[in-house]
Amino acid sequence: MKGMKKTISAITLVIVGLVIASSATAMISTQSSNENIVSSVALLQSQPIKFTKGISSVSRGGSQVTTQAYNEYHPSVADSPTGIFYAMAEVSDDGAIWQPTFYASDATGETWEADTTFLYPGCQFTALDSNSVGTYGTFGAPPDIPGQVVFFQAENTENSGVWDWSAVGDGFSNLFYNDIAAYNDPNPNATDIGWNLALTGDYGATYGVPMVMYREFGPNTYGLMSRATGRTGYVRAANSVDQEKVLTYNVYDRDDGTNLFVRVVNVGTWTYYSAQQYWAHPDKKSLAITETEFQVKYPDIAAKNDNVMIVAQKIDGASNDIICYTSTNGLTAYNRVMIVNSADNETYPQIVMTAANTAICTYFKNNILYFKATTDGGATWGPETQVSDSQANAEYRGENLCAKAGSAYSVWEDTRNGNVDIYFDKLSFHVPTPNVQIGTVAGGIGKVTMEVKNIGDADATNVAWSISVKGGILNRINVTTTGVITTLAANGTETVQTDTFIFGLGKLTIQLAAGSATASKTGKVLLFLVRNIA
Question: Structural domains in the chain?
Answer without folding.
Answer: 39-427 (2.120.10.10), 436-531 (2.60.40.10)
